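Posted in: Structural Biology > Protein-Ligand Complexes

Title: Requesting predicted complex, NAP in pocket

I'd be grateful if someone could produce the 3D structure tokens for the following input. Sequence and ligand are given below.
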Amino acid sequence: MRKITANGYLTLDGRGAFPKYPGSDRRPEGVSALFRHMWYNRFDDVTTVVMGRRSFLGHQEVWSESARKPGEPAWLLDYRRYLDRVEKICLSHRLKSTDWQNSRILRGDLARILAKLKREPGGNIMVEGGPAVVRECIQRGLADDYWFFVMPVVYAKGPRYWGPMDSQCTLRLIETQPGEDGEILLHYEAVR
Ligand SMILES: NC(=O)c1ccc[n+]([C@@H]2O[C@H](COP(=O)([O-])OP(=O)(O)OC[C@H]3O[C@@H](n4cnc5c(N)ncnc54)[C@H](OP(=O)(O)O)[C@@H]3O)[C@@H](O)[C@H]2O)c1
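-- Reply #1 --
Done. Output follows.
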């Protein structure tokens, strides 16, 4: 059975943003332990990445290999190439086509879309934002586990992860891992 993981990247006040903080601009020569854990170690098992339209277009613009910047560390290229080759699902009513390789556009009820993907052959599935899509996964219990990358900033700007919710949702903590610049990775699994 294909497992569904939802990834969230948020500030301490639950905003889906990438603010600057000490160390956030650092581009180490080697991939950080946290990034390796969240992505590099999963290049083989995650074969489908699901994103809302804005996140999909943002990732294509910033992270496809064609967006590579001169002089950047080699490990970033591995991430770009992974994102280019992995199957990508863009959730959108508006977008009719995409020129990002290995991508499909799907629309409709998120639970039905994820159930359809689960029935297709492949490895694990990662829901990579945006915040509203991850929130819907939590609220409706659509993912098997959740990885929250929490940045040490109260930002007060950007889309809210914790917008309106209907009811309590309790998760089970699997692991925590500190980052090198004050971030913390919280890994939870769904309680069913
Ligand atoms: N991992 C990440 O990408 C990430 C993480 C943290 C923060 N952020 C930030 O969050 C922002 C983007 O997040 P967001 O929540 O605003 O947008 P988003 O989730 O990336 O995209 C929202 C759009 O996705 C489409 N969509 C969502 N569910 C759908 C469904 N079931 N069926 C069809 N279409 C569906 C709709 O597009 P249509 O209008 O085309 O129907 C909707 O307007 C950016 O500012 C980004 O920097 C992103």
